[in-house]
Amino acid sequence: MMINKSLFLTYLYLFIYILLSSGVILYNKWVLSPKYFNFPFPITLTMIHMGFSGAVAFFLVRVFKVVAPVKMTFEIYATCVIPISAFFASSLWFGNTAYLHISVAFIQMLKALMPVATLIMAVLCGTDKLRWDVFLNMLLVSVGVVVSSYGEIHFNVVGTLYQVTGIFAEALRLVLTQVLLQKKGLSLNPITSLYYIAPCSFAFLFIPWYFLEKTGMEVSQIQINYWIFFSNAVCALALNFSIFLVIGRTGAVTIRVAGVLKDWILIALSTVIFPESTITGLNIIGYAIALCGVVMYNYIKVKDVKASQLPSDSIPERMNKDWRLEKKSSNNILDDDTNSGKVNSMSDINVDEEVPLMASSRLSHIGRSQLSSREA
């Protein structure tokens, strides 16, 4: 039985994303925890990640010229890159600091609040409107997280505040990225994103590091294992690229679904790797309630996106157009190598999120990609 190559690559990228995402989180917890590697300096660890990612991106852009830098003016850098980098650095700083106080399992449960935080920030920034169906889903998520928190045996107020603050900082970064970069018509791939954002984030992290961790590192007997820090930074960099591969292959909704699966796997793994991480029945019940709200929210968003993309043509007319587009695309692929590359790249980028996983027909694939390319 022949395995569809496209489907195989999709599942492979999803597997790599789940593996790297889970691995980075567990690796960071192991490095930061006083019970294991004992490097309780989360800002320093985050700066290592940003410094390494920025250096790699610099070599890829300026030395090896893998990708070309975008047209970046000082006005765009000051109004877009700097604020986005500031909130990106904040989300990483607060998120990594939470590992010092609460378990990996509980952190993953708290991350269910991300849609709530994103919606709040989007409403405040004017990019989204509050609707009753979405509000009820967000209320369900919040109730689930509260129940899960109530059932947490080792509940820590400081760690919870750090994690929730990091979630809201990340939500604001996502909204600002949409408002600022898209408004300027600026498109960044993972390499150029790291090229511009990582050094700026490193600079922002230097300020709290100087006041909060510099003195502690000087007086404490910390372990310096360059292989540990190097491999940890490589894993973090690889995770950034894997997210791009998954989104490029499938879409943002699919990576959300994969993220839910990853969270369950991570919760189970964390209890095995870190025995002190205990999960109660109330934890699971609360997290399940929160996930129901998240799934319903994603469903509403997918339905809204599809409704906005639905053309006024009738279904038979749409099928005829899809057939003509596929026939035209097939002829172009046979006749013109340049045009073939363009069609393939557009279908890879703009394909519906569910298409690769549902093994839809090529007719639907071509039709949707052409529609997306016209709307872009």
Give keywords.
globular; 376 residues; mainly alpha; 16 helices; 79% helix; 0% strand
Topology (elements, then pairings):
Layout (H helix, E strand, L loop, with lengths): L4 H28 L9 H22 L10 H25 L5 H7 L3 H12 L6 H19 L6 H28 L5 H23 L1 H6 L6 H24 L2 H22 L7 H29 L5 H21 L1 H14 L4 H4 L3 H14 L1
Helix pairs in contact: 1-10, 1-11, 2-3, 2-8, 2-10, 3-7, 3-8, 4-11, 5-7, 6-12, 11-12, 13-14, 13-16, 14-16
Task: Count the E strands.
Answer: 0
Give the end-to-end Cα distance, rounded to a whole number of Å: 38 Å
Order of helices and strands: HHHHHHHHHHHHHHHH
- Average pLDDT over all residues: 80
How would you characterize the overall build of this protein?
By secondary structure, the protein is mainly α. Among the domains are: 1-39 and 222-250; 43-102 and 156-221, no CATH class. 79% of the residues lie in helices and 0% in strands. It has 16 helices and no strands. Residues 312-316 and 321-376 have low confidence and may be disordered.
In short:
With 376 residues, this protein is mainly α.
